[in-house]
Amino acid sequence: PGNLDSAPMHDRDRLASIGLLLAAFACWALVGYVFLTLDPRGNAGVLLAGGLLLGAAVGLSIVPLLWLAGFARARRIAYRGAWPRALRRGALVGLVVAIFVILRGQGLLSAPLGLFVLAMAAFVELSLSVRR
Hints:
The chain is mainly alpha-helical.
């Protein structure tokens, strides 16, 4: 008895979390390599690669944490759609981080522009998470 759209944590949830954290670890290692060996001041490609890698590392790191927060908030019940929601939110966080890093590296980041990017990310998340 109970909600058919819910279930306790399964092995696939644990494996997905571990897989995402391993991918995040690999991205963090690449971020370290890029930041320690390459200079973004003279090369826009290095700046773009560094920004995208940092965004991917942050996004991949936060997805399992977002899923786990939803799992804990739902009293240890894994609802259908929790993983896509966590992936969407992690991708959005990673995109915001990448945009901030790239804008900062180009010297274009300002408070109004940063607030605009954050407001747009919040708007996208709110519009995608509205229940119909």
